[in-house]
Structure formats: C-alpha cells, structure tokens
Design goal:
alpha/beta; Rossmann fold; ten-stranded mixed sheet; 10 helices; 315 residues; 41% helix
C-alpha cells in the first residue's frame, strides 16, 4: 500500500462457480478508486488428497483447473469492462491457505480479500480453517467481506488497544488507524475509534490486577470502589491520549466495558459501521486454542466487513 492507495489486490475465490461474489464487488470498488490491479486466485485441493486414484489424478486436476479458469475469466471480464486490470490464476495444492500465502508474496500483493463463511465453535476448534489460518499468518491486510451492500460514505470503526493487551506492539494501533484513514479517504467515509476494556476483576492473593501506571496491591477479595474508579479513570486517560495522537474527535470515540466478542459488534451496529479495522496476533499450539484471538472471537459476531492487520514487524 503506497500513499494510502492499494496497488495489487489479491482476491482468493473459494468457489469460482458461485453465482455472486461479494469479495469481487468490494475489490472492484477499491480498485476503481485507487487504480489498483486485481488478481482472482483459486487454490484447488490436491486431487490425491481428495481421494482420487493416482492414475486419474492428473486428468482430474487438469479438467478441474480449466473449469476454474473459465469461471474466473468470466468474473474478470465484468471488472475489465470498468477498465480495471484483472489477472486470473489457478493453483492446485493443499492446504489452500499455504497456496494463498505463496501467491501474496509472488505477486507482491498489498491487500488480500476473501468472502466470509460461517464457522461454528467446534469447527473452529477442531479443524484447520483456511480463513482463520489467514488471519493468523497473512503478511498483508486481510479484508473479510461479509456484506453485499456497497460502501457509500462508510463509517469505519478502528478497534484500538491503548494498553497493548496480549503483547500487541504499540505500533499496531497506528497501523490500524492509518488503514482506516486510507480507506475512508478512498471511499469518502469517516473514522470512528473504539476500545473495549474488561471490568476490574476480583483480586486474589498473589495476583496483581491493574493497568499501566497504576499501583494496586494483591490480597483483596474484591476490588474496592476507589480502585474501580481509578481503574476507569486511567483507561479513559489512555484512550483520550490515543484519540489525540491519531486526531480522532471525542464525538466519534466509543469506550466500552465488557467482553470484546459482544461489545465490539454492538458498537459496530450502534454506529452503523460498514467496516471494522482491527489487529490480530499470531499464536501457536495449545495457547492459541484455549486463549484464542480477539479477531477470531469477534469475526463471526460482526455483521459488517472486517479488515484485519498483523503488526508489520511480525509479517
């Protein structure tokens, strides 16, 4: 992304034969405004892994890839009529997210767009899902398209974390706001900011609870009213500092207390956001499974599109 504009957009098309594609329309709108080129990419599962006999696998792969190319070309021609440069590519390989990540680097894409698919809790926990793997590992901003409606002067909600919970680097908030500002400038929208903080939990012996800059002792059965007041005041102070740093007015700021998986979608609905911009961090092994990731927890609950960024120093 150069000077607030995208140059090369990769659209990962899971089903080229689908009658409609929300990701395609979103990519076309962004490319029209920014002058970006688009590549429509379909990563097909390996025919061997799909249970096809070895003798038939090469023939099956060739025929399936050709059919996908035909569908992608039909999609591309719709955008080419708008004088957008569009390429198509089909790759056979498994898992799909690995093929997508390789393609991002090969064409030097600066935005990946996918269309959201519904996941239930058990599918997310037990199975490898392409989109959740991309959230964890995508080296460029990832736009998950959930709505078909066009962005017309969109309200964009930037989800900030002034305290950099879960080891988020402080630079990530700046990248989130910069991405929100860039899209707002392209599409004639406005940027709002939100931060969701959790209630001050009861303290138990040996456990320190608090926020940076606050001195709170351990050993209490429950937080005292004065502690709760100081906790909220410190959160407000840090949030206000972030608003000033990024030039976001108070009337477009939303400070909420509760579970981000509930409060952030509620805030997005309240401001009628067309897009939420948020950060994600890579996690691995059992820690990722049991602790989870805010982006993953919120994704299914949000009704609008989501732009997900990982810190630039970890891409």
């Amino acid at each position: 992304m150069q000077d607030g504009k995208f140059e090369r957009i990769l659209v990962a098309v899971a089903d080229p034969s689908a009658a409609s594609n929300k990701a395609l329309r979103r990519a076309g709108a962004l490319a029209h405004k920014s002058g970006a080129s688009i590549e429509l990419f379909n990563a097909m599962p390996s025919p061997v892994s799909a249970g096809i006999a070895h003798a038939e696998s090469e023939r099956f792969s060739r025929l399936a890839a050709e059919a996908s190319r035909v569908y992608l070309e039909r999609m591309a021609n719709r955008l080419r009529r708008e004088e957008i440069i569009v390429n198509t590519h089909v790759e056979t390989g498994y898992p799909a997210h690995e093929a997508i990540l390789r393609r991002i680097r090969f064409i030097n894409a600066d935005l990946l767009i996918i269309e959201a698919r519904k996941h239930n809790f058990f599918a997310r926990l037990l199975l490898t899902q392409t989109d959740f793997e991309l959230i964890r590992r995508c080296p460029v901003p990832l736009l998950v398209v959930k709505r078909a409606a066009a962005w017309r002067r969109p309200r964009i909600l930037a989800a900030l974390d002034p305290f950099h919970a879960n080891d988020k680097p402080s630079e990530l908030d700046g990248e989130i706001v910069a991405a929100a500002d860039a899209i707002a400038a392209l599409m004639g929208g406005t940027v709002h900011a939100a931060h969701v903080y959790r209630p001050l939990l009861s303290l138990i012996p040996g456990m320190e609870m608090g926020v940076p800059g606050m001195q709170m002792g351990a050993g209490y059965v429950a937080a005292m009213p004065a502690q709760v007041k100081a906790y909220k005041a410190e959160i407000r102070r840090q949030f206000d500092r972030a608003l000033g740093r990024y030039g976001i007015p108070r009337n477009r700021a939303h400070l909420l207390c509760g579970d981000p998986a509930f409060e952030l979608p509620a805030a997005a609905r309240s401001v009628r956001a067309a897009l939420v911009v948020m950060g994600a961090m890579s996690r691995s092994g059992l820690k990722r499974i049991f602790i989870g990731n805010t982006a993953e927890q919120v994704l299914d609950s949000l009704q609008c599109d989501v732009l997900i960024l990982r810190p630039s120093n970890r891409r």
